[in-house]
């Protein structure tokens, strides 16, 4: 396994920070075996995600959209968090304040017990009413064709995720923006930094003086301005960082 240089210095920086922030993307989920949005097979090869993940498609054919989302949920049902998820959850207990922003909808950060998670694109395990937006029963809905669940208001129940053409939840993006601006250290983990507005968060942190760390096997638009670039999967890099922080804390 590749090792990270100057881990002691990084650990000290994290322990001295008043606030640390992080943005995680699809690369982190992929390490757990979750297919990216465009990796489809079987029946769904003939559909583009944009044709299914939007309000018009749902209102025109809710059965088909729900069939696709239940298929996606089934794919995720046996997926487990990877060491990177567990490492970020440990960071909560080691430093003063840690705020985690994710573009992923898989719920894995919550599953391992991360305490301050901002979900920019929603959560595939949750449901809501399309009409009144009221949260509905969480989980894998069991329904028969033609008998889709409805809200008390009469509206159709849909997955609580952000679809194409929809705005990000206003409170979530505001909280994420504030977290980036106030962080002394900021991680960009497993994200290509091309999907906006989330992609702007690491740049916002840098503008406000954060020490910026990119963890990604591939180069991105962020790489040239990051203070530290770690060309490793998050599941390899983050446990090393947490081990160094724990060791440094034990010595103090």
Describe this structure in words.
This protein is α/β, with parallel strands linked by helices and 252 residues long. It folds into two domains: 7-34 and 81-121 and 168-251, 3-Layer(aba) Sandwich (Rossmann fold), CATH 3.40.50; 42-77 and 128-161, SIR2/SIRT2 'Small Domain' (2-Layer Sandwich). 38% of the residues lie in helices and 16% in strands. The chain is built from ten helices and nine strands. The chain has helices at residues 7-16, 26-30, 49-52, 55-60, 62-76, 83-94, 108-111, 170-182, 200-207, 234-251, and strands spanning 20-24, 98-102, 117-119, 122-129, 135-136, 157-161, 185-189, 211-215, 228-230. The strands form two sheets. It has a six-stranded parallel β-sheet with strand order 3-2-1-7-8-9, with helices on both faces. A three-stranded antiparallel β-sheet has the order 5-4-6, covered by helices on one side. Helix 1 packs across helix 10 (234-251), helix 6 runs parallel beside helix 10 and helix 8 (170-182) packs parallel to helix 9 (200-207). The longest helix is centred in the C-terminal third of the chain and has 18 residues, at 234-251. The protein is elongated, with a radius of gyration of 19 Å. 35% of the residues are buried. The mean pLDDT is 90.
Can you give keywords for this protein?
252 residues, alpha/beta, Rossmann fold, SIR2/SIRT2 'Small Domain', 2 domains, 6-stranded parallel beta sheet, 3-stranded antiparallel beta sheet, 9 strands, 16% strand
Topology:
Blueprint: H1 7-16, E1 20-24, H2 26-30, H3 49-52, H4 55-60, H5 62-76, H6 83-94, E2 98-102, H7 108-111, E3 117-119, E4 122-129, E5 135-136, E6 157-161, H8 170-182, E7 185-189, H9 200-207, E8 211-215, E9 228-230, H10 234-251
Parallel strand pairs: 1-2, 1-7, 2-3, 7-8, 8-9
Antiparallel strand pairs: 4-5, 4-6
């Amino acid at each position: 396994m590749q090792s990270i240089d100057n881990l002691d210095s990084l650990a000290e920086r994290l322990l001295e920070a008043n606030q640390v922030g992080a943005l995680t993307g699809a690369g982190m989920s992929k390490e757990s075996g979750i297919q990216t949005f465009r990796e489809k097979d079987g029946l769904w090869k003939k559909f583009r995600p944009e044709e299914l993940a939007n309000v018009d498609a749902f209102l025109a054919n809710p059965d088909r959209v729900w069939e696709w989302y239940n298929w996606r949920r089934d794919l995720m049902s046996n997926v487990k968090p990877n060491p990177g998820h567990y490492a970020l959850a440990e960071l909560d207990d080691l430093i003063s304040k840690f705020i985690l922003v994710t573009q992923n909808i898989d719920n894995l950060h919550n599953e391992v017990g991360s305490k301050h998670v901002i979900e920019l694109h929603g959560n595939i395990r949750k449901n809501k009413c399309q009409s009144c937006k009221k949260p509905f029963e969480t989980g894998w809905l069991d329904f028969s064709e033609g008998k889709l669940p409805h809200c008390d208001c009469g509206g159709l129940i849909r997955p609580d995720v952000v679809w194409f053409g929809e705005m990000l939840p206003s409170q979530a993006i505001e909280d994420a923006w504030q977290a980036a601006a106030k962080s002394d250290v900021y991680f960009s983990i497993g994200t290509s930094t091309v999907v906006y507005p989330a992609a702007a968060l690491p740049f916002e942190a840098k503008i406000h003086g954060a020490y910026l760390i990119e963890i990604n096997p591939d180069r991105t638009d962020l790489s040239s301005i990051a203070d530290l670039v770690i060309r490793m999967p998050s599941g390899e890099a983050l446990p090393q960082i947490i081990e160094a922080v724990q060791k440094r804390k034990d010595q103090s």
